[in-house]
Amino acid sequence: MQTTPNIIALDSATLNPGDLSWQAIEQIGAFKDYPKSSPDELVNRAKEADILLVNKVLIGEAVLNQLPRLKCICVTATGYNNVDLEAARSRAIPVCNAVGYSTDSVAQHVFAMLFAMTNKVMAHHQSIQDGDWSRQANFSYTLNTIPEIAGMTMGIYGFGRIGRRVGELAKAFGMKVLATHKHPERDSRPWVEFVNLKELFERSDVISLHAPLSSANKEIVNAELLGSMKKEAYLINTGRGGLINEADLKKALEQGQLAAAGLDVLSSEPPPKDHILYGIPNCILTPHIAWSSLEARQRLLNITVENIKAFLSGEPQNVVNA
After folding, report:
1. In the chain, which end has fewer C-beta atoms inside a 10 angstrom radius, N or C?
2. Structure confidence by residue, pLDDT tens digits, 153-174
């Protein structure tokens, strides 16, 4: 490796839209930042890179064949399905990801979704702006019955880092916690009860999805599971959009099979302008932002810096294709 490596970021806008500093990377090598790159631009922009930083751009074998100088790929995310791991391994190119940076940020968003569905703060704010409070005979009014989450049951599908943090917060709010998990003995806690998926959906007042998407659980939240939920229950997805059959969810929401859904992820991102879940009153959508607090993105950047330093020292870390 040359003394000053060329480090190129191909799609950095989500990690750093301008509110973070690249200084730590700039101190390591010659750094070039591209907020976004189209498939046609990838090779030309990456051809001089010793180290590539990528988030969602696709780095397949055809691209790697045209990057003989490349020595390391740092994915600025936990997921790495956008990189051909085998092709990188065959070229002795380590692919390094980042894990654990967004735990608190995602858990916070889960409860932001829950409070948006229960307390409806913005709806009440808009009602006041429309003059409704000034017209009231009483000092107080509500647009809907507001339930307390204390005493509710939080059901967590996927009890990894984020799922456990959601469970801890739920417990702090006085909720009972249920979860499904592949390793209940390993990750047992005195405050969580492990149940099967069917029981999770039947017993929970709130369902929060945190399992990674795989061929085994694609669209696992379907008409059958949705139909087993309590009519006053809430569904929250900050995991992967593909966990939910969106057509089944649309029907369930419209038929009142559950109270509401809060989704930070959809099966296609960005979604088409006529997505089937648009315009449903009891479906709140946010644009995949649960992970993206300032603090979480700073942690992600810090991990990426450490991944670069570890590679340059000859001891790469967080390698997913070793």
Report:
1. C
2. 999 999 999 999 999 999 999 9
Residue with tokens 């999805």: 209
Q: What is the pLDDT of residue 24?
A: 98
User: Which residue carries 């780095």 as its tokens?
Assistant: 59
Domains, in order of start, for the chain:
6-101+294-312 (3.40.50.720), 103-285 (3.40.50.720)
Q: Are 9 and 32 in contact (CB under 8 A)?
A: yes
Strands (E), 65-115: 72-75, 95-96
Contact status, residue 197 vs residue 182, Cβ threshold 8 Å: no
The segments of the chain whose pLDDT lies below 70 read: 1-2
* 269 in catalytic set: yes
| 69 belongs to the catalytic site | no
Q: Output helix, strand, coil percentages for the chain, rounded to the nearest 5.
A: 30, 15, 55
Q: Quick one: tokens of 212?
A: 């990674």
pLDDT reported for residue 182: 85
Is residue 275 among the annotated active site residues? no
Residue tagged active-site, from 48, 232, 269, 295 = 269
Global pTM? 0.92
Task: Give the model's pLDDT for residue 262.
Answer: 98
Q: Report phi then psi at 8, rounded to 5.
A: -125, 130
- Which residue is catalytic, options 164, 240, 297, 299? 240
Q: What is the pLDDT of residues 56-86, one digit of tens each?
A: 999 999 999 999 999 999 999 998 989 999 9
- CA dihedral (120, 211, 85, 4) positive or negative: positive
The one catalytic residue in 168, 275, 288, 306 is 288
CA dihedral 152, 182, 168, 211 (to 10 degrees): -80
pLDDT of residue 2: 52
Give the closest residue to 248 by CA, choosing from 201, 216, 310, 210: 201
Calculate ∠ Cα 132-134-138, nearest 5°. 90
Q: Centre a 10 Å sphere on the Cβ of residue 26 and count the other Cβ atoms it contains.
A: 12
